[in-house]
Design goal:
This is Class II glutamine amidotransferase. The chain has 288 residues and is α+β, with helices and mostly antiparallel strands. It has one domain: Aminohydrolase, N-terminal nucleophile (Ntn) domain (Glutamine Phosphoribosylpyrophosphate, subunit 1, domain 1). 24% of the residues lie in helices and 26% in strands. It has eight helices and 13 strands. A seven-stranded antiparallel beta sheet has the order 3-2-4-1-10-9-11. Strands 5-6-7-8-12-13 form a six-stranded antiparallel beta sheet. Strand 7 and strand 8 form a beta hairpin.
Amino acid sequence: MCRWLAYSGSPILLEELLYRPSPSLIDQSLHAQMGAEATNGDGFGVGWYGLDTTTRSMPNTRGPEVPVLFRGVEPAWNDQNLRELARSTSSGLFFAHLRASTGSPVQQTNCHPFRHGRWLWMHNGAIREFGRMKRDLFLAIDPGLFSSVEGSTDSEVMFHLALTFGLEDDPVAAVERMVGFVEATGRRHGVENPMQMTVATSDGESLWAFRYSTERQSRTLYVSTAMATLRSLYPDNPAFVGLSEETRVVVSEPVGALSGVWHPFPESSFGIVQPGDDVMGDFTPRDP
């Protein structure tokens, strides 16, 4: 499977979470502890929204229409360009993904995150027996979106199905419809437990995260503790200085070794990190 991280809050350098904690996300590209594989070396990707227009630094403006992508097919631990980029690029909302292929080719168009307009999407997991269901899933994508599919992964198909089912208007309902459609398609093809996923998506203002699997044994997903609590626990830790109270990190697997920093997402749940109060709720697939 894969490892991923989504950050929302005060603008920071990407390297603060990609490289500096011990263990870091980059460490997980070689030594993941909670993934299906220890090594996640089939490419990587980072997507971010511009610092000067991110809502975290200018509260009364919308996020940029088009986020920036940097993706590569080398293992993340071996890419010097990623290291250079991370130490010189700041953002208040960014995604980072380490890929472990479940069968599709190692190529740039198959590396997460995926982008459509101002939306980013990344996924850990798989549609089981994707090859048996692929034709039906592809044909359900809105014709106006079909030409935007560049790669061959189940993850990108999931993204375009979610867009088809209304991601830009109601992300939670759209992802519930997407999963409901995949599960219904799986039943028609005799596929048992077709969906396994943790997903993050963003429009540059808010961040949505989902944890779900058909068999209710989903891959791990964690969210960071409220910043006020972290400062109380670690008053002398410089990592928390200057970060806003709304700063949150969502990860497939914890980064860093401090206790009390990470809380697991419940099984079959979603979370919304947004200006103001965050939201956590139950995730229930629905008939699209």
